[in-house]
Amino acid sequence: MRRDVVTSIIGMVVFTLLLGVVYPFAITGISQVAFPGNANGQKLYLKGRLIGSRIIGQQFATLKMHNGKVVQEKGVPLTEQDPRYFQSRPSATKPPYNAAESSFSNLGPNSTVTERAIAENIKAYLEMERPYLPTLTAAQVPVDAATASASGLDPEISQANARIQAHRIAAVRHLPLSTVDALIANYTSSRGLGFSGEPGVNVLQLNLALDRLTGGTGGTGGGD
User: In terms of Cα–Cα distance, which of 154, 214, 161, 159 is closest to 186?
Assistant: First the structure.
């Protein structure tokens, strides 16, 4: 009996050290040497300042103003989408794109809450894009502009979504549409392993490229 207890304790200590200390440190060390970018979250810096990650979506917004003053709600400044930038896919986390709360709404397709959320997303999308693309209809709004991703952190939008937003970007930034379309193509990733999923456009990298091209920072900064 005593021998069994001692053996169990020794086994527990040994495996705790091996799997709880040695193995994690070894994997961490290997990843830092072989894949430092991926291991550290593919962070993007500008002049030493962290501005985001290639793999986590974020908002591109500006403070909401009224009569020269920042609009607040319960003491919290409100923001609105910045028309100078491509906008990310809707996020179901609170606040949006909160990496500490990666989640989907978990509501079914027949949920009235889901129905209202999709309708609101479509309405907001049309209000932002129609002034620059008057022919745009609700039926033409891409799925990824109306629904959140499973993680709520998707850093990419579809090519269709980006092409629609390109009309606004070209007008606001006074750029030829062909120039904006070329940037979209440059920051479009291919399908996983060549066949999985659909091509996606990295929103943060695309917006940073826009800032470099036009010399504006607008809150996101520049850099690659």
Answer: 159
Determine contact, residues 93/103, Cβ cutoff 8 Å: yes
Amino acid at 112: T
Cα distances from 129 to residues 22, 65, 126, 197, in angstroms, run 54, 20, 5, 26
- The residue written with tokens 């920072």 in the block is 217
> Six-digit token pair at 71?
């609009």
Q: What is the per-residue pLDDT across 171-189, written as a single tens digit (0 to 9) for each?
A: 999 999 999 999 999 999 8
Q: pLDDT tens across 77-114, in order?
A: 888 899 999 999 999 888 888 888 887 777 777 889 88
How far is it, in rounded angstroms, from Cα 187 to Cα 156? 10
CA–CA gap between residue 107 and residue 104 (Å, rounded): 8
Please list the helix, strand and coil fractions of the chain in percent, rounded to the nearest 5, in that order: 45, 15, 40
